[in-house]
Specification:
This protein has 21 helices and 20 strands. By secondary structure, it is an alpha+beta fold.
Length: 615
């Protein structure tokens, strides 16, 4: 029995060894005959893997004008393990650098190797963004510099020096993004702001790879295995913006030497026709080797040209808000189009006075908007908050705030422009905390005329103008118009309702028309354009840090509106002084494509106006 058991174990071990041998034999056969991947490793000393970076998608304006294209540059790559002694002076002359710069690059490379940021047997960037002209010279001598090769990249090229805040810029992916998204590798370019960032996934395309046969000097001898393992790069998708570049150029010209913004929207779609933030900068400043230097310069500028005031700045809306309080009063039933209130140079109580300018009195609703009467809206606002249908001031105030939110205030609208601010609309709890629950409608009376704690962005104010022109509905403002082989985000197709009955817009729009077209007492008569009926509303926002801000919202034509606009000029004084003329010129330029001779004097005054240097 013992001998028999021993024989069985011997047979089992022998069978196991034979089976294991067969497994290895099959595996070796697969590796050597059917799977070519082993050759990629075996032949690694004669082939080179080169990443193919796709061309970024082109960007066009609404009329098909090319705004952003691409230009070729070349990165000099290095494989440290393949380096051999070379003529450093010849290298420097070919690339266009000094010997000190070359030494600095090698010092950086050695440091990165020590920190394992790069690997000795893998390619890494040695010199970035070699120009096409320099590339030609360097390529001729590349065989002399073993361990180096060239990789093609593309940089953005801005065809117009306008629209920088909308377009944004491209830069290297940071560590946070590298950890978050495996698509990106160190040195990859990515949209940092604006449209470049928001539509990065569509614009970037898909990287490819090619394998090249190279000789011992690094010279390319051909394609590895006839390109069998190559993966072609896929170019990014082209996009069309709603932006009108001619209108953008005109708006930036009007805002030269001023601080503020212009936002114009197509009411029927919510598409942003122009977005100007002043001071402006040329988007080409943030391209290529000069990007870091120019970014530091712009960042240090005390006028903050990198700050997109159109979506980031928060201001009191001033008297433009009277249109909103009028609509709420009508909807709440505490106001009628024929309601009249006296104005004795303002609204006066025993403890408080809100001043007003000289105008006829009493006024009905349309004329209160036409003449921008402060006293009228103090009465309206208090009636809204003290409405008997609400049990207390908190309930009345929160009902008012709910309307504000439906109008698009207090929160981000959700546009496709980066860094959008939300503005601020207080709620009852805000005042309960400040006044220890001891406050009333008179305490917050400044909100009646768009002052106090209310803060809005110029984009929100342009959206307000679009909503008024649409009689109570609006689309989320957006700058995208078309995406190649794709669809515009669904949220931009959704119609937002404000909850205001259409009939209530009639007296408010009548007042806005009178404010421009009404004659002697019109607050915005300077915005009148022959042949175009404009509805508008001026505003003057108090500024504790200096001269008041000039504000104007408008849309035109009154029937079938094509453009809604908001203009905010910091330290510009009355709304009719700067904001209203600028808005009317933008409207005329968009609708007529030119400014009539009879209004050239106004255009000249605005273009020559310098509010930054006090001229």
């Amino acid at each position: 029995m013992a001998a028999g058991g021993s024989n069985n174990r011997t047979i089992s071990i022998a069978l196991f060894i034979i089976l294991l041998g067969l497994v290895y034999a099959v595996k070796l056969f697969i590796l050597q005959v059917t799977d070519p991947s082993y050759k990629l490793s075996a032949e690694s000393n004669t082939r080179r893997k080169v990443i193919q970076f796709p061309s970024r998608g082109l960007i066009y304006d609404r009329n098909g004008k090319l705004l952003v294209s691409n230009q070729a540059v070349y990165d000099i790559m290095i494989v440290p393990n393949e380096l051999a002694p070379f003529d450093s002076l010849d290298f420097c002359e070919s690339v266009g650098i000094t010997i000190e710069q070359l030494r600095g690059m090698f010092a950086t490379m050695r440091k990165d190797l020590k920190l394992k940021k790069i690997l000795p047997f893998k390619p890494s960037v040695f010199y970035k963004q070699l120009s096409a002209e320099r590339y030609g010279r360097f390529q001729e001598k590349l065989y002399k510099f073993k361990g180096f090769f060239v990789q093609r990249r593309t940089l953005r090229k801005y065809e117009y020096p306008y629209g920088a805040h909308v377009l944004g810029y491209v830069g290297e992916a940071d560590k946070k993004l590298l950890k978050k998204d495996p698509y990106y590798q160190q040195g990859d370019y990515v949209g940092i702001s604006g449209i470049e960032k928001v539509y990065e996934e569509q614009l970037r395309g898909q990287k490819g790879v090619i394998y090249q046969l190279v000789d011992v000097h690094g010279r390319i001898k051909g394609s590895y295995r006839n390109g069998k393992f190559d993966i072609p790069a896929i170019s990014g998708k082209n996009i069309k913006l709603a932006l009108d570049i001619d209108l953008q150029q005109y708006g930036e010209t009007l805002m030269k030497n001023k601080i503020g913004s212009i936002v114009a929207i197509e009411p029927a779609t919510g598409q942003i026709l122009t977005m100007v933030s002043a001071p402006m900068y040329d988007p080409s400043l943030l391209v290529g080797k000069v990007r870091s230097k120019n970014f530091s310069m712009l960042f240090a500028d005390t006028l903050k040209p990198l700050f997109n005031r159109a979506v980031q700045a928060r201001y009191p809306p001033g008297s433009t808000f009277k249109t909103i309080n009028a609509l709420i009063g009508l909807q709440e039933g505490v106001l009628t189009p024929s309601s009249k209130y006296e104005c004795q140079m303002g609204y006066h109580t025993k403890t408080l006075s809100v001043g007003c300018h000289n105008h006829p009195s009493p006024l009905d609703l349309p004329h209160s908007i036409m003449m921008s009467c402060n006293a009228y809206y103090c009465h309206v606002f208090r009636n809204i908050l003290d409405n008997p249908k609400y049990p207390n001031i908190e309930a009345g105030f929160n009902a008012w705030k709910d309307y504000m939110v439906k109008f698009g205030f207090g929160y981000k609208l959700g546009t496709d422009i980066t860094n959008e601010a939300r503005g601020f609309i207080p709620n009852a709890a805000y005042y309960d905390k400040i006044y220890n629950k001891s406050w009333n409608s008179l305490t917050v009376i400044s909100l009646a005329i768009g002052q106090g704690e209310i803060l809005t962005t110029p984009l929100q104010m342009a959206n307000m103008a679009a909503m008024l022109s649409n009689e109570g509905v609006y689309y989320t403002p957006h700058v995208i118009k078309e995406i190649e082989d794709g669809t515009v985000p669904e949220k931009f197709m959704k119609l937002h309702q404000t909850g205001i009955d259409t009939k209530n817009f009639t007296p408010v729009l009548e007042g806005m028309e009178l404010a421009v077209q009404g004659g002697a007492h019109s607050t915005a008569g300077i915005a009148r354009i022959p042949g175009i009926t404009i509805c508008g509303k001026t505003g003057t926002a108090q500024n504790p840090h200096g001269k008041d801000h000039s504000i104007f919202i408008a849309f035109a034509p009154k029937e079938n509106p094509q453009i809604a606009v908001a203009v905010y000029v910091e330290n510009g004084g009355f709304g009719a002084t700067w904001a209203a003329p600028i808005a009317s010129l933008i409207i005329e330029k968009y609708l007529n494509r030119e400014i009539s001779q009879r209004r050239k004097w106004l255009e000249k005054r605005i273009m020559e106006g310098d509010l930054i240097h006090g001229k």
